[in-house]
Amino acid sequence: MSPTDDILESRQKDVLKSVIRAHIVTGEPVGSRTVSRGAGLDLSPATIRNIMAELEEHGLLVQPHTSAGRVPTNLAYRLYVDRLMGRSRMSAAQTHAIDEALERSRGEIPELLEETSRQLSRLSNHVGVVLAPEWRRIVVEQLEFVRLGPHRVVTILVGRSGVVHNRILEVEDPVEQAELDRIGSYLSERYHGWTLPKIREELKQRITQERATYNLLASKALELGRQAVDLARADSEVFIEGTSNLLNSPEFSDLERMRSVFRTLEEKSRLVEILGRVLDEDGVQVVIGEENDDADLATCSLVASPYRSGERVMGTVGIVGPTRMEYARAVALVDYLAQVLSRLLSTTDH
Predict the structure, then answer these.
(1) Considering only CA atoms, which of 282, 288, 283 is closest in space to residue 300?
(2) Region 277-284: what's the mean pLDDT?
(3) Taking the mean position of all CA atoms in its chain, how far away is CA 308?
(4) 136-233, what's its fold?
(5) Distance between CA atoms of 30 and 20, rounded to whole angstroms?
(6) CB-based contacts of 280, cutoff 8 Å, min separation 6
(7) 92-134+237-348: what fold?
């Protein structure tokens, strides 16, 4: 329960909802006459003014200028999301369009995640973000190595849900393709169905053992496997779509405020950390304003949900936008995209 929920009267909640909904639409301070005309409340403008003053005392509204109306605080948005906003449903046309768009991309996992971020952005008019499967959650299906030159090898790590990680390795000793094929087959057979952290721990122990016996092929296989796993560990990709939508929000007309948000969206490691916090949560999470640990996102809200392959949590889908967003719509959209993505990844799984 939000801290102020137990002390608000019914009509105070009604007025607060009306102010929030009007401000979400206009982006402007909301006056008592606007609430009186648009909310369908059986209250006079004078009564509404008094109630708005009471809500200001509770820290739920602020008056940016002496003669202006009031705007909701982040505390008001938290109360609204937790207790007041109600549920929103996606239209049949929207769900059908999403299903079709993602179904077309289901064979290629990166394209599927990219399309998911595109749909999140398109339907919310905010920024759509998708965190690709985190390394510690990937279950290995296959490992392959392709020779580029005497000392350069491409490692191809295929996860069970279809996510592919390709990276170039530098090797000390020259290696031929036939030897790489044997190494790939050996590692794939031995570690098929293992998670990357489990493989990494096993390889660390076995490399130490093999140094004592000095089996050259086994040593090469284990070293290549270690490098492949370490590279996959660093390969947390984020798909972002619609950053230009922020330019349409009056909240970001301040240049420095806009720059701070763009900094976070451009620095992948920071975004991975922010989205990664949702991985161990159930359902849709809403993080409002200063609730974000990253100070550059203090003027934004994040609506995000984990998605799965079978029972395994794989990554995060979400929307980043101003605190003045249509939360009910954003929650419904994120929830549906997470469900569709989970279904497609689970049916791709084997």
Answers:
(1) 288
(2) 86
(3) 13
(4) Enolase-like; domain 1 (3.30.390)
(5) 9
(6) 306, 313
(7) Beta-Lactamase (3.30.450)
Tokens, residue 5: 């929920």
Angstrom distance (rounded) from CA 338 to CA 128: 12
Percent of the chain with pLDDT over 70: 89
Residue pointed to by tokens 């660093």: 234
Distance in angstroms (rounded) separating the CA atoms of residues 285 and 262:
22
CA nearest to 293, candidates 284, 283, 302: 302
Name 240's bridge partners. Answer: 129
What's the CA gap between 282 and 341, in Å, rounded? Answer: 16
Out of 4.10.320.10, 3.40.50.300, 1.20.1000.10, 1.10.10.10, select the CATH number for domain 5-84: 1.10.10.10
| Residue written as token pair 């401000």 | 23
The dihedrals phi and psi of 108, each to the nearest 5 degrees, come to -120, 110
User: Residue 221's pLDDT is what?
Assistant: 81
For 245-273, the pLDDT digits (tens) are 988 888 787 788 888 888 888 887 788 88
CA distances from 77 to 57, 59, 116, 271, 304 (A): 16, 11, 26, 23, 16
Token pair recorded at residue 337: 């995209």
Please tell me the distance from the alpha carbon of residue 218 to that of residue 100, in angstroms, as a whole number. 47
Determine the Cα–Cα distance for residues 10 and 13; give it in Å rounded to an integer: 5
Q: Helices 45-57 and 10-26 meet at what angle, rounded to 10?
A: 90
Per-residue buried b or exposed e for 110-133, using 16+ beta carbons within 10 Å of the residue's own CB? eebbbbbbbbbbbbbebbbbbbbb
Report d(CA 315, CA 306) in Å as an integer: 6
Average pLDDT over residues 213-225: 71
Give Cα 273 distance to the centre of its chain. 10
Q: What angle do CA 92, 100, 87 make, to 5 degrees?
A: 35
- Give the integer Cα–Cα distance in Å for 188 and 142: 5
Q: pTM of the entire structure?
A: 0.76
3-state secondary structure of 9: coil
The letter for the amino acid at 282 is D
